[in-house]
Description:
The chain is of the alpha+beta class. The chain is built from 2 helices and 4 strands; from the N terminus they run E-E-H-H-E-E.
Amino acid sequence: MSTALVVRTQRHKKIGDSSSPMVYTLKRKPQDAKIFDLARIAQDIEALGAMSAEDVEHVGKAIVRQMRQTLTDGNSVRLDGFGIFHTTFKCRATELAKDCTVKNI
């Protein structure tokens, strides 16, 4: 199991409120993490098993494509050992019903 390097920081309990008490929190150490794309992960998997990196990439892309469709349909996806994915949204409260709408992006 790997460990993430963290640093202890101190901040106000209510951010932006200088009268709130000070608390300690943990944050990731700046610039500690690297970004691994699907191609890099596929190479690592290829070194461990019988699948080629190209096959692993195709499977990864197929999983992402299928997850996107499943989530778009309003369902959730559980990948054992990885997490549960579901769509969320936020909206601002409006005083008038006509202003409470969905915008296409």
